[in-house]
Every structure is written in C-alpha cells, then in structure tokens.
C-alpha cells in the first residue's frame, strides 16, 4: 500500500463528515462530539483551517484513497503540535498511520525547520501510544487523563 499526504481540500469535507459522526474514531481524541456534525459545519471548519498559516493540515491517502487526516498545528518558533486519525476504520492496523506520520514529521523537520513536535494522547488509547513510541516520541508529562509526548529534530535524520 502506498501512503501519501497532501494538504486538505474543501471537497474532503464530504468524506470526513462521515468520520466525524463515528464515535469510535473520536473516542479518545480531544474532540468528543455530542451532536451530529453536518456537512455545512464540516465545510465551514475545513475552509477555516486550510487558511490558517500556523497549521499544516493534510489528508492521508492509501493507494490514492482518502482515509484520514494528519496535522501539524500551532506552528510557532520551531515548535508544533501533531494530530492524527484514520477515519475509515477498515484501514486501521495496516501501518498507514505510521507511514503518514513519518511523512509529516519529516516535512516538519526538513521543510518547516521545526525543532520539536508535541502531542497529547489519552491514557487508554493504547494503539496510538504504541504508534507514537514506535515513531520515537518520548513521554514528557502525564496527568490522570493525558500523556504529553515530544520528538526532537535529530540532525542525523534518523527516525525509527
Ligand atoms: C491510533 C491510530 C491513528 C492508529 O492508526 P493505524 O493506521 O491503525 O496504525 P498503524 O497500523 O500505522 O500502527 C502503528 C503501530 O501501532 C500498532 N498498533 C496499531 N493498532 C494497534 C492496537 N489496536 N493495539 C496495539 N498496537 C497497535 C501497530 O502494530 C504498529 O506498531 P509497529 O510499528 O510496532 O508494528 C488509529 O487507530 C486511529 O485513527 N484511531 C482513532 C483516532 C485516534 O485515536 N487518534 C489519536 C488521537 S491522540
């Protein structure tokens, strides 16, 4: 399977709106929606975020099929926050998140000149924690609900 990423486009909303309304996908993320997301609100959201110069918001494609979203947000002073979801659950567990993450981390370090990328993950989200550890993220802070992790630019360019 060939995994690529590209900047989000307005028309992606027609696919991503279906994922927004799947509680399993957003169970452990920062966004737990307790109302139905309409196509109008998804279009409004996508128009807003793709015009934000401090965000790099991408679609994940598996063999050309749009399957999820991956972002670097709050890009500022060499730092950014990373987020991911694979919205189409039939694509979970196939290594797609790992490949897409390597692409965006590489872009962040080499094209955006980031020094540090941060994320936060809920403690019970074991598949995400496993993914982040395998990418080289290290735990820097925890509380009852969240684990905060980071990965630093490595001049050798090595990532696991
Ligand atoms: C978390 C998520 C992004 C993982 O995506 P994925 O494409 O299934 O992950 P991958 O197939 O690339 O797997 C990456 C690693 O995690 C492991 N993994 C995947 N699913 C796992 C699971 N259910 N339990 C344990 N490990 C798991 C894989 O074995 C792989 O490890 P490896 O490199 O050592 O072999 C996906 O499940 C998802 O979108 N979940 C809902 C949204 C979400 O929680 N996002 C994160 C918010 S912080």
What does this entry show, briefly?
By secondary structure, the protein is of the alpha+beta class. The chain is built from 4 helices and 7 strands, in the order βααβββαβαββ. A hairpin with a 2-residue loop joins strand 2 and strand 3 (65-76).
What does this entry look like structurally?
The chain is an alpha+beta fold and 160 residues long. The chain has a single domain (3-152), classed as Aminopeptidase. The chain is 28% helix and 32% strand. The chain contains four helices and seven strands, in the order E-H-H-E-E-E-H-E-H-E-E. A seven-stranded mixed sheet has the order 1-2-3-4-5-7-6, covered by helices on one side. Helix 3 links the parallel strand 4 (79-86) and strand 5. The chain is globular. The mean pLDDT is 94. Bound molecules: coenzyme A. Coenzyme A (COA) binds at residues 25, 28-29, 84-86, 92-98, 121, 125-128, 130-131, 134.
Task: Please describe the structure with a list of short key phrases separated by commas or semicolons.
28% helix, 160 residues, alpha+beta, binds coenzyme A, 4 helices, globular
């Amino acid at each position: 399977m060939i995994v690529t990423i590209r900047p989000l486009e307005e028309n992606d909303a027609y696919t991503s709106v279906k994922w927004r309304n799947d509680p399993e996908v957003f169970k452990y993320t920062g966004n737990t929606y307790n109302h139905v997301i309409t196509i109008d609100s998804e279009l409004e959201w996508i128009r807003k975020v793709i015009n934000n110069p401090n965000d790099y918001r991408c679609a994940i494609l598996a063999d050309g099929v749009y399957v999820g979203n991956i972002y670097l947000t709050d890009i500022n002073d060499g730092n950014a926050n990373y987020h991911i979801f694979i919205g189409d659950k039939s694509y979970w567990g196939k290594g797609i998140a790992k490949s897409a993450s390597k692409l965006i981390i590489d872009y962040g370090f080499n094209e955006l000149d980031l020094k540090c990328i941060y994320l936060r993950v809920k403690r019970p989200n074991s598949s995400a924690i496993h993914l982040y550890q395998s990418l080289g993220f290290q735990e820097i802070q925890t509380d009852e609900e969240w684990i905060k992790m980071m990965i630093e630019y490595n001049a050798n360019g090595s990532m696991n």
